[in-house]
Write a structure and sequence with these properties.
Layout lengths: L19 E6 L5 E6 L2 E4 H6 L16 H4 L3 H14 L6 H4 L1 H4 E3 L3 E4 L8 E3 L3 H11 L15 E3 L5 E3 L8 E4 L8 E4 L3 E11 L18 E12 H7 L13 E3 L4 E2 L20
Parallel strand pairs: 8-13
Antiparallel strand pairs: 1-2, 1-5, 2-3, 3-4, 6-7, 9-10, 11-12, 12-13, 12-14
């Protein structure tokens, strides 16, 4: 596809992407936008102009939650319609360009979703191996790792948008040359680059969701930087797991890429060994 909009050939925000996020312009309240090249498309303005059939009080919100709540069928229809208009020479987006497009340097970006809860998974073999070696160089994997999803609940309130300054946390840890722990700022701060999945559909308490249904519940993906104070984590992990060494901050990217945008990039997954239980 080619678009009439001037977009750099190496932009992460091509016409094939069109991720959703929250922005504000001209000191107005935050609202829903779509990133394309170096611009943000204002969905609330497109609605007011009668271009998109979106209910009121959906796109003028400070989180994507109400928009995502419309369901994937409707939200993807919005994305496809914008994609078509970005191709058409007689596009209404071109006609109302000054009303619906904002240069990215002129807007403020916000956390894209209101996060009620989040779970951090120890998912790929490479990630689990690299992280495990920090604490157990000769035996990075526990025996349960290949059998079930290893995870812990993180602190949703400490998730921040990318570029937010991170304060080096203080905590208790035990230096190798000390017989007792000390309280100090962490000296082993790093982050794990991960993928965040935004759940966009409710499930009922007590009802499990099968792996075959899982994608119906995922609205989209974003980048997730899991900040980690390894010395604090090493001392407090025995025996229960991550706590203060992991929950002081996590950074997420501001734009949520839909699963539909990623469909063409599917690859065969690694062979599951052992065979999963029913």
């Amino acid at each position: 596809m080619t678009t009439w909009l001037d977009i750099s050939s190496n932009s992460d925000f091509s016409i094939y992407n069109l991720p959703f996020g929250i922005f504000s312009a001209h000191k107005k309240k935050p609202q829903v936008g779509v990133r394309i090249g170096d611009y943000v498309i204002d969905l609330e303005q497109t609605r007011k102009l009668g271009l998109l059939n979106i209910p009121r009080n959906i796109c003028n919100q400070s989180s994507l939650n109400p928009f995502i709540g419309l369901g994937k069928k409707r939200t993807n229809a919005v994305r496809i319609q914008l994609q078509e208009w970005l191709i058409q020479e007689n596009s209404p987006l071109k006609r109302y360009f000054d009303h619906v497009f904002h240069k990215i340097e002129n807007v403020k970006i916000y956390l894209p979703v209101k996060i009620g809860d989040y779970t951090d998974f120890y998912s790929s073999i490479e990630h689990a191996t690299n992280a495990g070696k920090i604490f157990r160089p000769d035996n990075p994997h526990y025996p349960n790792w290949k059998h079930l999803p290893i995870a812990y609940h993180g602190r949703a309130s400490s998730i921040v948008i990318s570029s937010t300054p991170i304060h080096r946390p203080y905590g208790q840890y035990k230096p190798l040359d000390s017989p007792i722990p000390v309280f100090s700022a962490t000296k082993e701060l790093d982050f794990e680059l991960e993928i965040g999945a935004i759940i966009g559909r409710n499930s009922e308490h007590g009802n499990s969701i099968s792996t075959t249904e899982a994608e119906e519940y995922v609205f989209g993906l974003l980048l997730f930087n899991d900040w980690s104070a390894r010395d604090i984590q090493r001392w407090e992990t025995l025996p229960l797991g991550p706590f203060l060494g992991k929950n002081f901050a996590s950074s997420i990217s501001p734009w949520v890429v839909t699963l539909e945008a990623l469909e063409d990039f599917r690859v065969e997954s690694p062979k599951q060994e052992p065979v999963p239980l029913p």
